[in-house]
Amino acid sequence: MSIDTALSPTPRSTVRRLRDRARTDRSELFDVLDGSLVCHLAIVLGGAPIVLPTGFGRVGNILYLHGSTGSMSMRAALEQDVSISVTLLDGLVYARSVMHFSMNYRSAVIHGRCRKVEGDEKIVGLRAIVEHLAPGSWDYAREPNKRELAATVVLAIDLTEASVKARTGGPGDDDADIERGGVWAGVLPLQQHWGDPVHSSDLERAYEVPEHVQQRITMR
Fold it and tell me: What is the DSSP letter of 208?
């Protein structure tokens, strides 16, 4: 299936404030998703809005989520339109005026209706989630058995209706504040990195850290 490379805004996915920060290429949506580990699923549950953080995986233009078959939030996500968001924080922007402090970021918001997946696609979705969070682990660890699969629901949502927004660069100070001077302004970049692996206390013997875990440490 071919994927349209352009984001085609709908009334729900149109960026209305600070429109110059909107991104229009679908590859930028994929970059934000592939660089994030946690998304936030927004639903209405029991008549009230709720936002739930969860891991996810992507295959092409499909995003996969998973949870317990007994989860009320998973059931609710199948009965209504949902919104899913991810954000990558790249730095804090210090300005000469506190009203111009900001953040450099990349974010995406997805709208749509989830569907429940079964059969081979359920395995595809679970593998995508595992490999997104912990690359190389699906073929290293034991795969889910029938009981585990029966207790797990996998949801899929199409990424067609989505928006991407980003901010880069320094502060947007007023000319008067720039001319006045005397205050530092700039960007404090944010970088995250993995620490040293911590062995599980119940390992039956000493193991070397697997190569795919070592490689994860070097990934950004």
Answer: P
